[in-house]
Specification:
The chain is an alpha/beta fold and 333 residues long. The protein folds into 2 domains: 2-253, Aldolase class I (TIM Barrel, Alpha-Beta Barrel), CATH 3.20.20; 260-330, Hypothetical Protein Ychn, Chain: A, CATH 3.40.1260. 40% of the residues lie in helices and 21% in strands. The protein has helices spanning 19-23, 31-41, 65-80, 98-106, 121-126, 133-145, 164-177, 195-201, 210-226, 240-245, 255-271, 289-293, 298-305, and strands at residues 2-4, 52-56, 86-91, 109-117, 149-156, 182-187, 190-191, 230-234, 246-248, 277-284, 309-314, 323-330. A 7-stranded parallel beta sheet has the order 1-2-3-4-5-6-8. The chain has a 3-stranded mixed beta sheet with strand order 11-10-12. Strand 3, helix 4 (98-106) and strand 4 (109-117) form a beta-alpha-beta unit. Helix 7 packs parallel to helix 9 and helix 9 crosses helix 11. The termini are far apart.
Length: 333
């Protein structure tokens, strides 16, 4: 159950940001709305497992404290009733301190996501983020010290990034070092009504292509997978408001699946040591067969172009992006 609070609490507007386009939300969320929607849509008491109430958009811990407390009180009512297991919020790295964390703990907040975006201070400055990587590090350490679940959000292809793939790898490594429980990865899009639109129109910013964004995201995701960090979102949700505001950049409604598809393809290629293989049967994690096949069967077509027939099945014992070769048939002499 998610509530979006566009631009609320933001000390400034980052050059790429149009929260109303991303969330589709225009009006301010009021405590009564939180209560009414939770009461209507949350499960009956005792069925709260895996059900969270989330406050996204803006910087939740930087909004007026009275307003923040009212929203938390409305949500916490349903935690007490065991209709939800906890509250998740997103905020800025420089809007976290001990007093804030004490308040969040009081109202059953379990997870805090930081919009960190990059570990490169020059890129953060160019995008007018208003914080540096040290702020992310300090906030992350505090969040873990208070025993919240830590989530980080990163972007690829930001303005001022001279080497997007290497930056993605370095940022992923720096973020993995902070030991978050979850990650979200987003490609940078040019949205109408942002400063990035002006930079794009003047030729000062060239967004990544879909392929380039996939390449960067694959590199970052591989770092998080190796560190056993769960990536819970790849790419923006496909909202009507986003479609209306989208101007340029690597947007694809199935961006996450295309990234997973590329990772699986790469892993199969790395496992195929014998150049004489004619047919290969592989197992992938539960729910990953579609990604393994690829959009428009692109992985099947790719391996066919190499003279290899790819057969795919799922194995619930495997991890989400894990691949296992079951058997192969060599080409005849």
């Amino acid at each position: 159950m998610a509530f979006f609070i566009p631009h609320k609490g933001c000390k400034q507007s980052c050059i790429f940001c149009n929260q109303r386009a991303i969330s589709g939300k225009i009006n301010e969320v009021c405590p009564n709305e939180v209560f009414d929607k939770c009461n209507l849509f949350l499960p009956e008491p005792g069925n709260e497992k895996g059900m969270e109430i989330a406050f996204f958009g803006g910087s939740f811990t930087a909004i007026d404290k009275g307003y923040m407390t009212q929203l938390l009180e409305a949500a916490n009512h349903f935690i007490i009733q065991r209709r939800a297991s906890g509250i998740r919020i997103s905020t800025r790295p420089d809007s976290i301190d001990e007093d804030i964390l004490e308040t969040l703990k009081k109202y059953s907040v379990k997870a805090i996501e930081l919009g960190a975006q990059s570990s490169d201070d020059s890129i953060l400055l160019a995008n007018e983020r208003g914080h540096d990587h040290l702020s992310t590090t300090k906030a992350s350490n505090l969040i873990r010290d208070f025993e919240f679940s830590l989530g980080l959000q990163m972007m690829v292809g930001m303005y001022g990034d001279k080497d997007p793939k290497m930056t993605a790898i370095k940022t992923a490594e720096d973020f993995a070092f902070l030991r978050p429980q979850t990650m979200r990865i987003y490609p940078t899009l040019v949205l109408k009504g942002t400063k990035l639109e002006d930079l794009f129109n003047s030729g000062k910013y060239v967004p990544l292509s879909v392929k380039e964004a996939i390449d960067c995201t694959v590199e970052a995701l591989s770092v998080f997978d190796k560190a056993d960090i769960e990536t819970i979102r790849i790419g923006l949700h496909s909202e009507m408001s986003l479609h209306k505001s989208f101007l340029a950049g690597p947007y694809h409604p199935a961006f996450g699946e295309k990234v997973n598809s590329r990772i699986i393809r790469n892993k199969v290629m790395n496992l195929l040591e014998n150049e004489r293989i004619k047919t290969v049967k592989v197992a992938v994690g539960k729910g990953m067969k579609s990604a393994a096949i690829g959009q428009k069967r692109e992985n099947i077509v790719f391996f066919n172009s190499l003279g290899i027939r790819l057969i795919i099945e799922e194995d619930e014992k495997l991890g989400k992006r894990e691949v296992k070769i079951l058997n192969t048939i060599d080409k005849e002499n």
